Amino acid sequence: MIWDVDLSVRAWLGHYLPPGVPVVFDPPDRCAQLDGELVSAFLADVEEDSSGVSATWDELRDAGGQLVGRRPPGRRYRFGYLLTAFAADTEREHRLLGDLLVGCASCTALPARFLTGTLAAANQPVVVRGAPRRDGSTGPGWPAGAARTGLHLQLLVPFVPEAETDLAPPPREVSVNSGGRPDGPRPGRRPGRGITEPG
User: Locate the Pvc16 N-terminal domain: which residues (predicted)?
Assistant: First the structure.
C-alpha cells in the first residue's frame, strides 16, 4: 500500500515540475549529496485517521439480491511527506517548491489518472492537504536546525479490505413437522421444525 501511495505521489508531483526533475523518496540529508536538480518527497510518518470511520460491515449482493460476501469496515491513514527541492541555488529551489505548492493548491484530492494499485482499486478520494496548519495532528514538523526550506504534504489515504466471500450457503429446504400424530402433538410439546442443510 505504501509503495502505491509513493508511486501516485511521484506521478502527481512530477506533473507540476519541469521536465527532467525527478521525485525521489530519500531523506533530505542524503539528497544533499546527489548531483542535479531533484525533489525529495520523504515519508516522515503514517498514522491512522479514525475520524468518520464506520464500524459496520458492508454486505455485497449480486444482481439477484443474493448475499455473496461481507467486507470489513474500511480504514483511513494520514501520510505525512516532507517536500524539499535541491538545485544549484536557493532561488531555483524556491521556484521548484512553488511549483509543488501550486499543485497542492490546485486540487482537493489526487486526480484519478495518477492513482495506481490499491489506490486506484479503492475508487475513493485521496484527500490532499498542502502546507496544513500545525495543530498537533498534522504529523512531524521540520527537523530542528534544518537550513533548508521545506513544504509539508499530507494525504488522507483510504484502505478498503478484501471482502470475505467464504459464506455458509443458505439452507436448501425448511420443513415443518406437526409430529405425525392423528390426535395432534402431545400436551406441552411444540411441533417440530427441521432444516435441511446442503449436502
Answer: 5-131
The DSSP call for residue 63 is T
Residue 13 has pLDDT above 80, yes or no: yes
Grid cell listed for 91: 532561488
Using alpha carbons, select from 121, 131, 106 the residue that is nearest to residue 157.
121
Taking only the tens place, the pLDDT of each residue in 18-64 is 999 999 999 998 988 888 999 999 999 999 988 766 666 566 677 77
Residue with cell 491513514: 77
Radius of gyration, CA atoms only, the chain: 28
Q: Report phi then psi at 99, rounded to 5.
A: -60, -40
Q: Mind listing the domains of the chain with CATH numbers?
A: 2-159 (3.30.2000.30), 168-199 (no CATH)
Identify whether the C-beta of residue 126 lies closer than 8 Å to the C-beta of residue 8.
Answer: yes
In angstroms, the CA 154 to CA 137 distance is 11
Say how far apart CA 115 and CA 107 lie, in whole Å: 14
Numbers of helices and strands, H then E, in the chain: 4, 9
